Amino acid sequence: MDIQLKKGILELLVLASLKYDDSYGYIIIQEMKEVIEISESTLYPILRRLEQQGLVKTYETVYQSRIRKYYSITDLGSKRLKESEMDFKEMNKIYDYILR
Amino acid sequence: MKKNAFIKSLNQELSFLSRKEREEIIHYYDEMISDALEHGESEEEFVATLGSPEEIRGNIQKDGTFMDKVKNQFGHSFSQVFDTTVKVIGYFFFCIFALVILSVSFSFVTSGLTMIAVSVYQLIVQPDAATLETVYQFSVILLGTGLGILGIGLFKWFFSTAKDMIQKVFKTVKSLLEK
Lengths: 100, 179
Prior knowledge:
The complex is a heterodimer.
Chain A (H helix, E strand, L loop, with lengths): L2 H15 L5 E2 H9 L6 H13 L3 E8 L2 E8 L1 H24 L2
Antiparallel strand pairs in A: 1-3, 2-3
Chain B lengths: L2 H11 L5 H20 L4 H7 L3 H10 L1 H9 L1 H52 L3 H50 L1
Helix pairs in contact in B: 1-2, 1-4, 6-7
């Protein structure tokens, strides 16, 4: 897949995986792997970028005497996800046209 | 690779990042591996899927957002890199200088001792020309042997220590250029 396209999609996939519930690294990547090819090393910069842009925020909890970092979607993140739904509807039309 | 070895190696590879940044990345991988193990994945296999620490460093260096951060602290990180380079090069030249001094002093000592020995011998024994010639030849052989051994020592030094150091200098320069 085209790198720029994939980068954008990966960010949206992370947001989508946090849509209903907060989650942590391992679970996020397991969910994403079901729909797209991605490695743990690719996910980290994406999570970091999303946090820098204020689309997700993080907090830490103690789990079995180690710290686990949770990610949760912000209002801004939800807004972005909503916008992308419209984009995808538009994209669908484009794909239909390309693949006709 | 096992988790501990991976984390340790990654920590070394990421030494160019700020401490906070490095700790965050290390924590991410640490947590990821711990969770994977809890879900019953094989340690060796899972760590292998993460890519080598060198690859991870390469990707981070290529990633614009990480490099922005480095650029923000440009003065700081540049001076750090500069410091190490200067240190390595300085150390390298110091070694060469020390060896030159060593060889010069060695030559002085041997030639000086030979001269004294020859003169004393001449004074005491007052030998004929043929004996004197033999003594001179002998002293030249001694001096030559000393120089030869010194030469071998220098070569040995060059191919063991200096080679490593030259490689180190190249590596530092290379990583500097990559940045």
